[in-house]
Amino acid sequence: MRFTKMHGLGNDFIVIEAEKSELSPEDYSRTAIKLCDRHFGIGGDGLVIVGKDRELDVFMRIFNPDGSEPEMCGNAIRCVSKFVWERGLVSTTRISVNTLAGPRYPEVILKNGEVEKVRVDMGEPILERSLIPMLGSPGKVVGEELDTTAGRFRITAVSMGNPHCVVFVDEFSSVPVSEWGPVLENHPVFPSRTNVEFAKIEDENTVSMRVWERGAGETLACGTGACATLVASYLNDLTGRRATVRLKGGELIIEWDPDNNHVYMTGEAKEVFTGEVDLRKL
């Protein structure tokens, strides 16, 4: 099976074109578990399946290293945009992508004919508690206290098509991400589990962030997490509607447009290598 290894700010993926793969959809989950293993497989934060879509330009499905399928992934959609543009699967720089979270509309930004960055219309943030989803009384979850086995956290919950729990911190040195992350990810108040962002406000235009991704653990970057963090920062009066979000793997520019309520994410996508893998040997 042919594959392409790509990453968005170090959040790395094994990308497979559905039409050129012998995998059936029933195989995707267990194949992701095998291929994403960094010791016995190729290694990656996810397996991404891309192909021509019946209604939009292309579809994208993502499978975590534990075999679960998230609704959306911001870094993956930038990689997919670069992948389909460079392989001629689309003919325009603005692309429509079908995801489990609904349609998303990235645009490849070219420099000297090469994809320099990708700007993605990530749609409207979902702030109603039940739609995130999160248990509890109706309304927004902004600066709400949550008791856990690791202590009490003040959280802001946002969905960007997938659930996020944002916690603001003073310093990362006092944040045990690998301990607090899974506690919050699997808290009973989140029926579909949640992604967890620990965010530090540098100034009104800059936020640093570390992320614990649902089904993947700590990663170097999370696009939807960066979007959720910007929204949470604005809702808590900590930043404006546009900020640079600094992740361990690099930076993203996130904007929350007041006119259409959409969040826009701009960042890089890189192709690392292509190869073949014999699934029978894994």
TrEMBL record:
Reported function: Catalyzes the stereoinversion of LL-2,6-diaminopimelate (L,L-DAP) to meso-diaminopimelate (meso-DAP), a precursor of L-lysine and an essential component of the bacterial peptidoglycan.
Residues under site feature: Could be important to modulate the pK values of the two catalytic cysteine residues: H164, E213
PANTHER family: DIAMINOPIMELATE EPIMERASE (PTHR31689:SF0), DIAMINOPIMELATE EPIMERASE, CHLOROPLASTIC (PTHR31689)
SUPFAM superfamilies: Diaminopimelate epimerase-like (SSF54506)
Gene Ontology cellular component list: cytosol
InterPro entries assigned: DAP_epimerase_AS, DAP_epimerase_DapF
Main location: cytoplasm
Coiled-coil positions: none
Binding site for substrate: N11, N64, G74, N75, N162, N195, E213, R214, G223, T224
EC number(s) recorded for this UniProt protein: 5.1.1.7
Protein name, UniProt field: Diaminopimelate epimerase
A single GO BP: lysine biosynthetic process via diaminopimelate
Catalytic activity annotation: (2S,6S)-2,6-diaminopimelate = meso-2,6-diaminopimelate
Keyword set includes Membrane: no
Pfam families: DAP_epimerase (PF01678)
Active site: C73, C222
Subunit annotation: Homodimer.
Locations listed in the record: Cytoplasm
Family to which this protein belongs: Belongs to the diaminopimelate epimerase family.
Pathway in which this enzyme or protein is active: Amino-acid biosynthesis; L-lysine biosynthesis via DAP pathway; DL-2,6-diaminopimelate from LL-2,6-diaminopimelate: step 1/1
GO molecular function, one term: diaminopimelate epimerase activity
Source superkingdom: Bacteria
Gene of this entry: dapF
Sorted UniProt keywords: Amino-acid biosynthesis, Cytoplasm, Isomerase, Lysine biosynthesis
